[in-house]
Amino acid sequence: MSTSMDPAELYRHGLTLLVEKDIPGWVDLWDEDGVLEFPFAPPGRPERLEGRQAVLEYMRHYPEHIDIHDFPDVTIHRTTEPETIVVEMRAVGRLVETDTSYDMTYIAVVTVKDGLITTYRDYWNPLAAVQTGADFTATRSTH
């Protein structure tokens, strides 16, 4: 991974990898000690994953559960810290098991150092996920 990408470029590249179902490529964007947090995780779901390997294990089956077709609405806000961005986005696709549509909005706070993600706070709405029919009790596999 080139360290020349700024956080916004790296994030957009990561979205492309997710649409392409390239989970190993997406995980390669992470620092070895990167942390993925879910502040609104429902009971029984992880609130924090520590390390690239934990992120890989969590995301490994993502394409088997959610088939993301596009991120049609992505707004990236720069912060006073050059390495940190705030992202508002929408993912659309389908739930593989039920073949129903998937349309979810997210806010993420992401910090990148030396061209790799070091922290990623994923603010998603578990109540909206339930309304889409997504089963996040077995394996939550977005981002």
Provide a compact summary of the structure.
26% of the residues lie in helices and 41% in strands. It is α+β, with helices and mostly antiparallel strands. Strands 2-1-6-5-4-3 form a six-stranded mixed β-sheet.
Distance between the termini: 19 Å
Q: Tell me about the biggest sheet?
A: 6 strands, mixed
Low-confidence regions: 135-143
Strand/helix succession: HHEEHHEEEEH
Number of strands: 6
Helix content: 25-40%
Characterization of this structure:
By secondary structure, this protein is of the alpha+beta class. The chain is built from five helices and six strands; from the N terminus they run H-H-E-E-H-H-E-E-E-E-H. The chain has a single domain, classed as Nuclear Transport Factor 2, Chain: A, CATH 3.10.450. A hairpin with a 4-residue loop joins strand 4 and strand 5. The chain starts with 6 loop residues before the first helix and ends in an 11-residue tail after the last helix.
